[in-house]
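Hi support team,

I submitted a single chain yesterday and got back a structure, but I'm not sure I'm reading the token output correctly. Could someone confirm the output below corresponds to the sequence I sent? I've pasted both exactly as they appear in my results page.

Thanks,
R.
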Amino acid sequence: MIDTKFDIAYAAGRFNLSLNIIDGNPQIFNLMGMDSYYSVYKMLSDDEQKKIASAAAQCLEHPGLVCDECVHITVDGKRCCYILTIQLAQDGNSYDLALINVSNTENRINELNRRLITAREYISLTGEAVFAYYPDTQRFHLYYINHQQNVTIFDENFGEWETQMLEQNRVAKEDFETFETFCSILRNGKFSQSYTFHGCIISDANILERYRVSFKPKNYENGDQVVIGTWAIIHEATGDVNATILEDSYIDSLTGLLNKKSIMKYAEDALKGKNRDRTAFAIIDIDDFKSVNDNFGHMFGDKVIKAVGNVIKNAVGTNAVAGRMGGDEFFIVFEQFTDELEFRNVLRCIKTNVATVYHDQMERKLSCSIGLARYGVGPFSTTYHDLFKIADRSLYLAKVKGKNRYIIYKPELHGDFNLQNDDDIINVSNTFYSETDINALHNMLSDLIVYGTDSVTEVLDFFAHVMTINRVSVFLSDSGAPAYTNTLPADVPMADPSVLKNVKYLYLFTNNLLAVSNLQSLEFSTPEVYKLLSDTGVACFMQYIVRDREGEPVGLISADVFDRSSAFPKIAITLFADMCRTLNAVFLREHLI
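Hi R., thanks for writing in. Yes, this is the structure output for that exact sequence:
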């Protein structure tokens, strides 16, 4: 019987390229429960098989590479966690595998995480702020814990903080001496002490509070030293901790997240801190929340907002700080992530779990739209105002693209969301258009006339971005695939050019142009066209008839929007017509029609 104690490493076995065992340590034979050739896949779940197959392929492609994957294997009826290490053997025709049982480590980590969560919840309930002072670096980090969120009040050099508090008169004059004594003993880093003094350091610069500050030094085995402490606001009459002051100052009463004032200040401070290069803002808005209030009442609406707040709270955990801006709008400040995948995991988690909120009580699932902006990504993206503006416009783009999605801003995909001068932004019916982008589109059309059709796809891409259109397609016949289209996935639906065969439909065009803000309007006038387009998922569109030199319709240009019905502003229709007329002229010149 194999020893199932934890943290045991089993020497490598040798497996062929199909991961069938050739030879190796008898313990591996026993672990796999056989006495003859056997596949490592038989021990693993479908998902784990894919991980190991991928790791094996990487090792085969890159000799010398060692891959580690976490897998679970049932031994004697007990499911254990292993680290499986795989490497291509020297002969190039087999793999060396090793297994390390880490179940006990996994259990210990899970238990430590449970204890950590419990401790954080307890500290959150006490209403006290906490701090850590590091004598070696003079760093002073004062913060409070709101459930799993660390909300920083100060995180800077202790000497600078002390000077700032005194110069800004944030310590009561009669307690200057006590405060200076506290600072001196804390800086010494060797004594446990407790002090009481008055000031306006924690909650509001205009409110004088009584503080009880207690601390003790802690020395770790590796030689590191830190002084840890608590910072409580004390009720003047009773001497008890007054948790409500801290809560009222920072916390949104409905959701338990930071309130608007606090999350905005936190965001501004994040861009001044040491992790500003990692700072990102995400703005979240519940889709069609007005209909929730209208159909179920404001009390139920408050329950929905609270539940969404919990979704956000659980999704960000200790990786970010979240707040409620008001109404159904939330704000997240990230300071730890560097990989886009990390942002996507959190945003996807929020989007997915929002759909479960009171899903059994509402006919339509709840959804949300999210816009995210990262520090330094794109021009003018390093200040609070800039980042907030990019995140807000990314949120708007998520809305106009059909809602229930998140947009992580990328300048190469979305253009310049954050012009240095807001006067350059044209606001039409709450839709923002950049004058710079519009001028750039006209320049591209001029180049198209000069250089020909090589840049047609580029023009369609840019028009789709500027006008927030899902799909722009150019058909040069009344059937078949488009001759040109913007670069979207192949499975995204598009208009059907066979509509050109419907004479009654063609009568709806004026000067070759038709803009339909709601597909339903075609249901009775041209039911065949309505069915044809509705089957493709188009909700509203602009179309232009391409004509040959004799004026006969020979093609169609269609700009399609899915999942929303919306009136096209005049500027969008004008730009579409300009683009289509230019394309028609170029196609005629180059004898494509």
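A quick pointer for reading it: The first strand starts at residue 9 and ends at 16. Let us know if anything else looks off.

Best,
Support desk
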